[in-house]
């Protein structure tokens, strides 16, 4: 949840709609800005300080094609790829909404919008973007597809990926947080015959349980109290393409049962509707949890695991990838230096040693975060170990630590893995937020 709101840019050519949206959003603690034309929206976005864009796809009131809005969406996603864009479409223009989602919109609302849903959608998109930016927005442009993998462990992964990508089978990608599961999922899609079809992601850890069924399968108007309009689900959006189910270990048993049945017969039913619809979707799932352990604990269905893991790809942690760490670091250094207009050119020997000794609990994401910060801190051409600020490294395997040392280590590791997000770190350790903060503050004294 977003406590302090965020700044929403409302792009709509109708002043009354801008005003109505602004009123609702301000009452909920958001700050708003308005743009009456795509050009004005582009200027305000360039000026910075915008956390999300609420974009009416039908800019000119006399058109319904949505072309102006789609053009703006395309340019926004190129220049600000991480900015969440929620689009507004006319009622019933599901095709336009689907086009927008495929072009990178985070979500859509149909006019007349429903205030409660407007707020929920914006809050969850902002929370997601925030979580990503604490941990991931500092990642380098290779996010677009260049996979750095020269170590034997990663070469074996890529060979396997090349073999299985063209076969239309379910894939389960496992690996610690930040090891590149999302990247590999996209790579598999890109190497398959579905490459020109939609690649749709749903993070099962990020959607509230009450919305998950409708996110996956869609709903019809009136299906439940808040369902004021029809809504298409991710399975239908992904039809013909790939659905990437991230954090599958977080799916509730009820969701697991629904997923299993869709995977078995390829048929979905929108909530509130009787008509079954056939979908042709390749599912790629990912998890950083140990699903076998979850099965033992009665929290994951064995039969679902068997449906998902026709092929299982285990991504090695960064610390097991040998010299890849240097190549990834160098790549990130070059990208960050360009982005920030810095003349940093490389790493000093002590920095290289630190890079290779650090255990990288947050893996590639942590590495790019650390290197980008170092680029900003460096005062010479070379990054030194001090600029990396890698902090204490576990001196001994955990079995040889005292309880205090182990606690300190696990807390630091969880924080690093969560990219500094204390709430996520607390969840990872199975602690309540307050219990986690208590331990964290003890650790700092
Ligand atoms: N081998 C690699 N080469 C280049 N970039 C990589 C590589 N592996 C990961 N990355 C980058 O690191 C970042 C984290 O990767 P990604 O989001 O795919 O990880 P993940 O395992 O899905 O994380 P999480 O479990 O937190 O969802 C991304 O920006 C990704 O592009």
From TrEMBL:
TM segment ranges: none
InterPro entries in the cross-refs: AAA+_ATPase, AAA_lid_NorR, CheY-like_superfamily, Homeodomain-like_sf, HTH_Fis, P-loop_NTPase, Sig_transdc_resp-reg_receiver, Sigma_54_int
In-chain residues carrying the UniProt-annotated modification 4-aspartylphosphate: 56
Domain Sigma-54 factor interaction residues, every copy: 147-376
Pfam assignment, any one: HTH_8
Stretches assigned to the Response regulatory domain: 7-126
Keywords attached to this entry: Activator, ATP-binding, DNA-binding, Nucleotide-binding, Phosphoprotein, Transcription, Transcription regulation, Two-component regulatory system
Domain of life: Bacteria
Signal sequence region: none
GO molecular function terms noted in the UniProt entry: ATP binding; sequence-specific DNA binding
GO-annotated biological processes: phosphorelay signal transduction system; regulation of DNA-templated transcription
Official protein name in the record: DNA-binding transcriptional response regulator, NtrC family, contains REC, AAA-type ATPase, and a Fis-type DNA-binding domains
């Amino acid at each position: 949840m977003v406590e302090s709101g965020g700044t929403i840019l409302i792009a709509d050519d109708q002043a009354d709609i801008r005003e109505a949206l602004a009123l609702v959003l301000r009452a909920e603690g958001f700050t708003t800005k308005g743009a009456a034309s795509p050009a004005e929206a582009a200027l305000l976005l360039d000026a910075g300080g915008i956390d999300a864009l609420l974009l009416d796809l039908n800019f000119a009131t006399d058109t319904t094609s949505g072309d102006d809005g789609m053009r703006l969406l395309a340019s926004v996603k190129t220049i600000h790829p991480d900015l969440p864009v929620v689009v507004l479409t006319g009622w019933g223009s599901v095709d336009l909404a689907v086009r927008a989602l495929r072009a990178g919109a985070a979500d859509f609302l149909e006019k007349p919008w429903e205030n409660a849903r407007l707020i929920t959608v914006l809050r969850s998109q902002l929370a997601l973007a925030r979580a990503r930016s604490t941990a991931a927005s500092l990642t380098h442009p290779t996010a677009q597809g260049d996979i750095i993998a020269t170590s034997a462990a990663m070469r074996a992964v890529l060979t396997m990926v090349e073999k299985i990508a063209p076969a239309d089978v379910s894939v389960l990608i496992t690996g610690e947080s930040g090891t590149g599961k999302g990247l590999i999922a996209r790579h598999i899609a890109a190497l398959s015959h579905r490459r020109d079809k939609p690649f749709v992601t749903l993070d099962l850890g990020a959607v509230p349980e009450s919305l998950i069924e409708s996110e996956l399968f869609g709903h019809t108007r009136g299906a439940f109290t808040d369902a004021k309009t029809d809504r298409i689900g991710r399975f239908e959006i992904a039809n013909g393409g790939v659905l990437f189910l991230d954090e599958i270990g977080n799916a509730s048993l009820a969701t697991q049962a629904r997923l299993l049945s869709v995977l078995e017969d390829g048929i979905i039913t929108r909530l509130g509707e009787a008509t079954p619809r056939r979908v042709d979707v390749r599912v790629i799932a990912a998890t950083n949890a140990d699903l076998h352990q979850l099965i033992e604990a009665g929290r994951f269905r064995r039969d679902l695991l068997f449906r998902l893991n026709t092929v299982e790809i285990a991504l090695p942690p960064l610390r097991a990838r040998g010299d890849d760490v240097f190549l990834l670091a160098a790549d990130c250094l070059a990208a960050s230096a360009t982005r920030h207009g810095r003349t940093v050119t490389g790493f000093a020997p002590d920095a290289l040693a630190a890079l290779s000794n650090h255990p990288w609990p947050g893996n590639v994401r942590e590495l790019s975060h650390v290197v980008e910060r170092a680029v900003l801190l460096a005062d010479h051409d070379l990054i030194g170990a001090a600029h990396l600020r890698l902090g204490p490294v576990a001196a001994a395997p955990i079995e040889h630590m005292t309880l205090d040392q182990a606690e300190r280590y696990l807390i630091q590791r969880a924080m690093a893995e969560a990219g500094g997000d204390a709430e996520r770190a607390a969840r990872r350790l199975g602690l309540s937020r307050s219990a986690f903060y208590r331990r964290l503050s003890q650790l700092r004294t």
